[in-house]
Design goal:
Layout lengths: L5 H14 L1 H23 L5 E2 L2 E2 L1 H25 L8 H8 L5 H34 L11 H8 L3 H5 L10 H25 L4 H21 L10 E4 L3 E4 L1 H26 L12
Antiparallel strand pairs: 1-2, 3-4
Amino acid sequence: MKNFDFHRFALTFKSQLLMGRNFWLRLFLIFFLVLFFMEMLMTEVGEVIYNGQDIYKMRVDNAVNFSITFFVFSMLFGATGIFSVLKDTRKRIAYLMFPASNLEKYINCWIMSTVVVAIVTFVAFFCADTIRTLMAPAFGREMIWGVPSFLSQITPNIHELVTTTNTDQVCHWWDVFFLVTGCVLFFHSLYMLGGTAFRRQQFLMTTLFIVLCFIIIVNVLHHIDFEGNINLLNYDEQNGLQVHPAMYVIMVCLYLLTCFNYWLSYRIFCRVQAINNKWLNV
């Protein structure tokens, strides 16, 4: 069997998506209900006039911010749930015996836990916010749709951030793009690695492990004497966003660690055993 065949991969993806359609439908309904009730609670409950000013738009913005936070946590939760099918012994045996290579199964799970979870979460927010907007006149509120604000916040105007009158600026739009993308992929790879390594309570165990590592790193750096202050990122209205050369080294290391996390996650998946009662898949 070849390690990767696109036609076989497409059939595997279609098969897994159809077999899990009930799960995705339940996930959509749960996300929709949570987002809808939170939006209604944050926008319609209580007075919208404060000190003579209409604060309804501010309430809608706060509801959108909550939805963005919910979107981020759903992506991380989806990353740790990449191999949720491996929890049950019967399902684990059936999945490992599925006629596809390990690489095809891994990429299939990656798409499911990343792209499909993102689509389900956004569609749930879209439906919840649209229904809330259509119901606003019934409560005597102005119809303010939160979807454009949601999209504008998850896709910030990078050009506006780095545009400056200073022609000698260090930072360009691609610096910000690769930095933000690198941070997002790094944390996603960490949670995916945790979702592959831990068999139980993947999200909780991965989060605790990351927090523990962060505390250790901060304590180590606190006891290191650096000569002078190094501002990796510096922003002012006249010069715009300035990037220290050391930031490029950090960005390269970030992408290398991201690739390593994905690779290690894949190697752990290849070693998964059908019968395993341990907390770790290693």
